[in-house]
Write a structure and sequence with these properties.
homodimer, alpha/beta, Rossmann fold, 6-stranded parallel sheet, 6-stranded mixed sheet, 25 helices, globular
Chain lengths: 686, 686
């Protein structure tokens, strides 16, 4: 065994030495954990990395990525060739060994790196298993029963998102989740006790976890394996936390020191390691035959796992043909053909909060299409995402004081007041297998700032998650500026792959959901209002939402295009009318629900909608700050600072969004425009 | 006592009933806590709300703001008149009773509302006291010894930022901090056990807190007072957590129910409450004389506190005249006059990472001006913010494994891997008293997304915090897209009051710090590079940074203005040269360190710099996404998606930031421009 551990450690040291970059220390300290996981404990299939029922492994301490890459190589993942392993930190843009594990690559479940995210992702993966198992397994047919293993470092234990995840996973009693804590007590600044002296085990127990200690995680592979085996114990009632003492950079001169974390050890130190092991100090990247043979059975073991599972699935299909068909459709990420027809064709004409429109549009889909799992960060009464006969996702034996029982079959998730972990868990649910589960999260738009790091990770990974952000704009009202997201849209409009949509009424909400459900390149956020919005029936068009912006009201010989979006869409219509009636100004009206979708349109369409190229200036009305609108508009009625605590009916006027005031300012701007006072490309704040 | 509690509860119920809006439940449940705090336990002075040594009170569950407003009224804060109290949720924009407590108003220490922030703020306040006490107190002269009291609700306990704060405060042994947990076990979705079943007391103990239970927090004022008194116990070695069982909306028909949280109880229910108390059901907003007299001694008690403290300060000034002068300067937020001269006048000419420039610029100021407290989220070796003889802020009796001892006098803060709480604690440090402590935080720029909710709260409150964000842009390199902040600048450039600056070399870093230290309207973020940058000596000008953008290189009869910023500033210089030499195109060069500062310049200056109004198009080079640049540029060489894991020396080329490629594309754009192919206001991605 020692030679296996030594080989692994020296490989890591050499890999970092190669280009003088990388994170050697933790990976080296975790050598024994790797052997225990990949050789003994995990169920996986190197030849079929996406085997549906494989155990999931998440490296939350993603900087230790060499730990994973090297194990993928040793255990026979085909894409991870020797050349690929050597490409870590090389100039190759097609390297499968980026600085943190990335979901695109074989054998990697999720992209990690920002610390603590991985724990939450793992919770999502384990929830997915629990849910699919509860939904599809039948006596004798555990077709979904994979385990989720998550490695965490000292840093992950400190991050808030990790704390939220631990608390929630303990509550959920995720017995199919094992977290392995690489407890080396070293972080960048020095020893962990410089900043963290909590009793970790006690804290984890308080959070509802079973805790096991492994005293020697450096060499005692057997102890680790035996701890991991407890993870699979069918009688366990809690998720398992294994606190493994390791030594960062073990075997090197910097063992146990912070400097072992993020810099190569240096040529001499690596040579000294080799010498201490009795190895040839000149030989680099060496894998002895006995080590190769140690790992050689894994590919065939993987094939056996897949074969057995396929057989199980075949019998299951015989015994439960209909259920098995549903299961296969879910595996393939197929939605039922008829989901589109569940969207109402027409809506009530009275003023409706778009959060309610949202419910009108999706509640039937949510109720009837089991692919969706809907959740909220404790805003059930506000976000309007419950649906007929919804069942809560909770441990079946939990009887809350409020009486609302659930089960793992439930698809409505009470995340608690934990926005960040909600979005990160949703990433895990989505990553379990493409479109097998489509998670929907919800909260006030403002609190998607708490969730932003996880939303970003979803965007980076192109994970299909739909976020429903309610109470957008200053219309959130009396809750005040802490709840009024004047600048947050800039983040989501600028985030690659992220589809941020602000629909203006029920009709546009319908269009937004069609786009959201079909969009496959990342997360979508549907941003809706708290307060009632006029329904612009006959003007708004659901199918036009997909184009990002469209002409709501054309006007021949127009002097100006007035554009608005979302909760304030009707403002543009009112202002255009006022301009016509009181100022003799003809205005076209454009609805602009999504920057991204509009930018993807051909230039010809963009010009047709905006008409700036033929000399008609465009004005945007939106009570967010203007940043980003300069691309589409020449002037804007926007927020210039934070909001204010005022009830909804007063706040728009307070900030100058009354129709007559806006019309006057736009009129003034047009005079300046005609007089040539406005330079090309200049944007005027009205 | 019962009449006091009843009066308080009915006032809250009436206040919410008045306009049919508000959060009555928690405030009503917390009535006894209010009496215990304001009548018995807290040291404060209604006539002098900003008395330096007052106890600080933070309402982390900010939606329960009526709890605080009503107590401010009852205890005699002058600004909180009867009319003001009645203005809660009215149409008055000058109401002192916004939907969440706001720092601008008398008696409010910090704006709260986004849950969990308040806990972290309170930790910052308590750290400020510890630090000032350790620095200025002398035997017999406890001139700074105030206590910090923080109310939290069930939600605050779940938020990640709260978890981070608890863990760190326990580590710091903040004996001057008491957290009072309004444990009503109800949140919006129902009973808390729907989503959280952790053993809170055990978890808090594990985090290093002393825990006291109060079983009847509804009526047993005496038990609460006795628990609070333990908060002041000078022999305590840990921060104190008081777990107080309360009942949301107690006394009403919705007592103990989620619906009591955020909606008024309704006329009949309020009447029923009054009836049950034996009160006149028609009478609203009634305060019996005995209640008035119950609170009547508080103003004079406050005057006495201030008087005694002033006397103490006078003797202290006699005995320690020099120290007292320093203390008074700190109280007044005065920086020593000579800080500006500590900034070097010249810098080495060799390529320098701007994170290192940053150190060259501020390390002397940090070492010599005690106003600054510097911290990092575990990136000491990366952010380069240590300074000569720096001392760590840590409990004096803590001896970490790494040996690095500290004390409360220390001004270097190891926040751990807790970016969010770092920024939130910094807000607390800054809010203790204006400019008495100026906190500096630091991390990789990307991880200011984790910290963003707290950075925003600092901006909203105009708190003077300086954030040093290193490893900005794709230059972060091999760490990959999880660490490359392509879209984050859009958030900080759009955030009101936030001053985001990307300096281009050491000279501009010097300018950035001058601006940052003088800026008084909110936080500043200085965004610097990991990798070495050419020093554009003779071109860059420190004093021009204050203008946001300036001409780096003028050119007569120019065809184009090439603009760049921060780590890529030299790209513009190189591209201009290439355009001239290879394409016969004359280019002006503009450095653009800050959108906000530039937007604040007169239009005449903006036009002088950009010259777009005289027909010269502007092109921006920045490896962030383009959003926001459309205001200043006609075209851009920007990122179109997320980054990639590649070492720094390869990544710029990978994304098309080679000089020749950029010059070619700019040349192509200029042809299109001349040919009139680009519509007015259109922005072209090159």
């Amino acid at each position: 065994m020692q030679v296996v551990l030594q080989t692994f450690r020296l490989l890591i040291a050499d890999l970092c030495q190669q280009f003088g970059m990388g994170h050697p220390g933790s990976a080296i300290g975790m050598a024994a954990l790797g052997v225990a996981l990949w050789k003994y404990s995990m169920k996986y299939a190197p030849h079929e990395p996406d085997w549906f029922n494989r155990d999931r492994f998440v490296l939350s301490n993603g900087h230790a990525c060499l730990f994973q890459y090297t194990n993928l190589y040793l255990t026979g993942y085909k894409a991870m060739t020797w050349e690929q392993l050597l490409s870590y930190h090389s100039e190759r843009p097609d390297s499968l060994c980026p600085g943190h594990p990335e979901i695109e690559h074989e054998g990697i479940e999720l992209t990690t790196g920002p610390l603590g995210q991985g724990i939450a992702n793992a919770v999502g993966l384990a929830m997915a298993t629990k849910h699919l198992a509860a939904t599809f397994n039948r006596p004798g047919y555990d077709i979904v029963n994979n385990h989720t293993w998550c490695m965490v470092g000292d840093a992950c234990m400190q991050e808030g998102v990790g704390c939220e995840a631990f608390s929630y996973a303990g509550h959920l009693k995720l017995t199919n989740l094992t977290v392995i804590y690489d407890n080396n007590q070293i972080s960048c600044d020095g020893s962990v006790d410089l900043t963290n002296t909590e009793d970790v085990n006690k804290k984890m127990e308080a959070c509802g976890w079973e805790v096991i200690d492994v005293e020697d995680g450096v060499n005692d592979v057997e102890a680790v394996v035996s701890a991991l085996e407890k993870g699979r114990d069918p009688n366990r009632e809690k998720p398992l936390f294994i606190n493994v003492r390791t030594i960062i950079g073990v075997g090197s001169a910097v063992a146990g020191k912070a400097v072992a974390h993020g810099v190569p050890f240096g040529k001499d130190n690596v040579a000294a390691m080799k010498k201490a092991y009795g190895w040839d100090i000149e030989r680099t990247f060496y894998i002895p035959d006995e080590v190769k043979s140690f790992y050689s059975d894994l590919p065939s073991r993987g094939e056996q796992h897949v074969k057995e599972w396929n057989q199980l699935l075949a019998s299951y299909s015989n015994e439960y043909p209909e259920l098995a068909q549903t299961f296969k459709d879910r595996m393939e990420g197929k939605l039922p053909q008829d989901w589109q027809w569940m969207i109402p064709q027409a809506f009530p004409s009275e003023a409706t909060p778009s959060r309610k429109s949202n419910s009108l549009v999706v509640s039937k889909i949510l109720a009837q299409v089991p692919t969706f799992m809907v959740g909220t960060a404790d805003l059930t009464p506000s976000v309007n995402l419950t649906y007929k006969d919804y069942e809560i996702f909770n441990p079946p034996d939990l009887v809350p004081i409020s009486g609302a029982k659930g089960s793992y079959k439930g698809r409505y998730i009470h995340y608690g007041i934990r926005e960040h972990v909600m979005a990160a868990i949703a990433n895990g649910l989505a990553a379990y297998s493409p479109r097998t589960i489509i998670p929907i999260t919800s909260s006030f738009f403002m609190f998607y700032l708490y969730a932003a790091p996880a939303v970003r990770m979803g965007a980076l990974q192109k994970l299909k998650v739909i976020h429903v952000a309610t109470h957008d704009s200053i219309g959130a009202g009396e809750d005040g500026p802490t709840h009024q997201p004047v600048e947050l849209a800039a983040l989501y409009r600028s985030m690659p792959n992220m589809l941020y949509i602000r629909p203006g009424d029920s009709e546009e909400v319908a269009g937004a959901w069609k786009v959201a459900i079909e969009y496959d390149d990342g997360p979508c956020m549907i941003s809706v209002s708290r307060h009632a919005l006029p329904q612009l029936q006959g003007l708004t068009k659901r199918d036009s939402v997909a184009k990002g912006a469209y002409v709501l009201k054309e006007e021949k010989d127009a002097h100006v295009t007035v554009m608005a979006v979302g909760a304030e869409l009707s403002f543009a219509v009112n202002v255009a009318k006022e301009l016509d009636e009181k100022h003799g100004i003809k205005a076209r009206v454009v609805s602009f629900p999504s920057h991204k979708l509009f930018r993807e349109q051909p230039l010809s369409y963009q010009r047709e909608v905006l008409q700036r190229n033929v000399g008609i200036p465009a004005v945007i009305i939106e009570p967010y700050v203007s940043l980003g609108w300069e691309r589409f508009a020449d002037a804007g009625v926007n927020m210039k600072g934070f909001g204010h605590s005022l009830p909804g009916k007063y706040i728009y006027n307070h900030f100058g969004f009354e129709t007559d005031s806006m019309a006057k300012r736009i009129g003034g701007f047009l005079k300046d425009w005609k007089a040539g006072n406005i330079g090309r490309g200049e944007f005027v704040e009205l």
